[in-house]
From TrEMBL:
Pfam families: PRP38 (PF03371). InterPro entries: PRP38 (IPR005037). Residues 178-247 are annotated as: Disordered. Residues 185-194 have a biased composition (Acidic residues). Belongs to the PRP38 family. The lineage of its organism: Eukaryota, Sar, Stramenopiles, Ochrophyta, Pelagophyceae. Keywords: mRNA processing, mRNA splicing, Nucleus, Spliceosome. It comes from the Eukaryota. This is Pre-mRNA-splicing factor 38. Required for pre-mRNA splicing.
Length: 264
């Protein structure tokens, strides 16, 4: 039968590899036109041609939860069980991001825990965008987020993922080495950039101070000129021919106010 697993396929997690996908979802995949027309007779070599055509990830979509092409190819991979070397090439493929995502999900379903961490953790530095098709519509995610979901969650693409032990537990059993930073040297570069930025900032401070003082001097000079003009206008005129008239006018004003007159 076309829907049976390869006779040479080995059991995964103690069961048939196809049973990792729930039965109701498997039946839906078997009934799709894409499975009957494009997935029939695929081998490990010809599977790549179909994987390159994928333009989204996801499990099911629409109101009737129709399986995606991504899920159909995943089930086909579980059926024919390609070699680990082929899956590793899928994961290391940098040109086709959906092929990489398909290989990552397949390895998460059938791989051993040390192999899963070994080949999926390097994908944390891949920030390529991925289109996700769900029953609610289209969303956008990234490769690193998709990989983090595979390593930390128990459910992805509408299928239940096999149990994955924590990384520290495998390290205690010496099954996995300590995690290495795939972005070595970035911390030093950040420190150098921060120090250079601080030095540039400190070097620019005096210039900014002089600029502020210069601007403040421009803004205050008109005020000082106005105050000086006002003070000159309010100041009494110099003593001269009209000095007596000013004294008489002042005495007249003081008399109205009931004050003593000034002496000439």
């Amino acid at each position: 039968m076309a829907n049976r697993s390869d006779p040479m396929a080995q059991e995964v997690h103690g069961t048939n590899p196809q049973r990792i996908v729930e039965k109701i979802l498997r039946m839906k995949v078997y009934a799709t036109q894409y499975w009957k027309e494009y997935c029939f007779g695929l081998t490990a070599e010809t599977l790549v041609d179909r994987a390159i055509e994928i333009d989204h990830v996801g499990g099911t979509y629409g109101g009737i939860r129709k399986p995606t092409k991504f899920m159909c190819l995943l089930l086909k991979m579980l059926q024919i069980q390609p070699d680990l070397e082929i899956i590793v090439e899928f994961i290391k493929n940098e040109e086709y991001k959906y092929v990489r995502a398909l290989g990552a999900l397949y390895l998460r379903c059938v791989g051993r825990p040390p192999e899963v961490y070994k080949y999926l953790e390097p994908l944390y530095v891949d920030y390529s965008k991925l289109r996700v098709r769900t029953f609610e519509g289209w969303t956008i995610t990234h490769v690193d987020e998709f990989v983090d979901e595979l390593l930390t969650e128990d459910y992805s693409c509408d299928i239940a993922l096999p149990h994955l032990p924590k990384r520290w537990h495998l390290e205690q059993q010496n099954l996995l080495g300590p995690r290495t930073n795939n972005a070595d040297g970035l911390d030093d570069d950040d420190d150098d950039d921060a120090s250079s930025a601080s030095s540039e900032h400190s070097a620019k401070k005096p210039e900014r101070g002089r600029l502020v003082m210069k601007r403040s001097g421009r803004s205050e000079s008109p005020r000082r000129d106005r105050k000086k003009k006002k003070a000159d206008a309010d100041a009494p005129p110099p003593a001269g021919d009209g000095g007596d008239l000013d004294i008489e006018a002042t005495n007249a004003l003081r008399a109205k106010l009931g004050l003593k007159p000034l002496r000439p």
